[in-house]
Input
Amino acid sequence: MSTARRYAGYRSYSYLRPGIDYESFRLAPETGRQPAYDLVLDAGQRRRVESLLARSIVISLHDHPVVYPLRPEEFRAYNRAGRQHTGFEGLARSGLTAVFDNLMDGEGMITSSAGWKWDETIHDLGMRLCDLGHQDYAIVGRTVGDIVSAHQEGRLAVVFGLESATPIENEVDRLDVLYGLGVRQVGIAYSEANALGAGLKEARDGGLTRFGHRCVERMNRLGIAIDLSHAGDRTALDTIEASSKPVLITHAGARAVWGTPRMKPDDVLMACAERGGVLGIEAAPHSTVSPAHPAHCLESVMDHFLYAVDLMGIDHVAFGPDTIFGDHVALHRVFGPAPGPGEGAAPRPAASPRQPETPPTGAPPAAQPVPYVAGMENPGESFANIVSWLVLHDYPDEDIQKVIGGNVVRVLGEIW
Ligand SMILES: [Zn+2]
Output
């Protein structure tokens, strides 16, 4: 894989002294944390997978390529330390040309209370830019040209994104500041409502607000991609209507396949596609489950892919696996119940003492609890397994190249 060529072994913050200059934690291994997923390919199919990964632009539309501590008890302290480690080693083996890195804001970074804070977002971004500034494998992806050069030079383009516009509060100009710091994708709302519109956890969705309209226009002018993954349905439809450019749903699945509010209904998916937008298929634990594969794994994720391609067309589907390096199920346990049902929170026990969130479409179906998503466990393995699945199911090269990166390149060309 071409992206491995330039990586020379850099580890996050290795220009400082761990334990002296910063609080250090024993981190999860970036490879081999779980057994490899075996799709049983023959030698010819394996060669085809390797060749496709090497010669294609491969883009993850949504991930958190951060390495978490081995011990979940340390997750909160790790976040509070305000120094997220990027999994460069795992990424170098992933086949990825570019990764939309959505940081870890809104999950109780630095302060212990969960929520979105401007200061913490800027701290997180600056810290990550500092780390990237001390190595020469990954670059900050700000343009389509950056992604193309990363592909040609065997580097990785890290594209910064924010899952929610909440940290801008009521200041449109903060979008300019985010753009200046390299952010190229911003979500309208993360599950709870903000000044722009409603999130998917709200019982009532009043649609895109007047301030939300101003932000959509500003993001169109700046060249920031709008993400609707955690927006409410009405807000999502209003945003697609208001935006002069295509919008993204960077990480979600189809509600027709799995009926949780975290999944998108057909009308939102179709409106997104009709305006030229792209859906990235999600794979965070217990999210894109399917009735045919209720124990979340690559096969359940691909059930959402098949449905989305059927509904939206092959030109409008990509992948946003939403993975981390480390125990993602434990991460949801530690920081839950912040994510909505379906992304987040481990499946709710039948007689939960906790008050359930109010899903807008009735009680969501219960996913079978899994310790990790087989085949989509971390940012290092997901795309090799996706390509293997597509090769095994006889997709032509042209279609595979579209869904693993080509469609994203096309839409970014229009948005950025
Ligand atoms: Zn998300």
Observations:
- Residues 2-415 form a domain with the TIM Barrel fold (CATH 3.20.20.140).
- DSSP finds 13 helices and eleven strands in the chain.
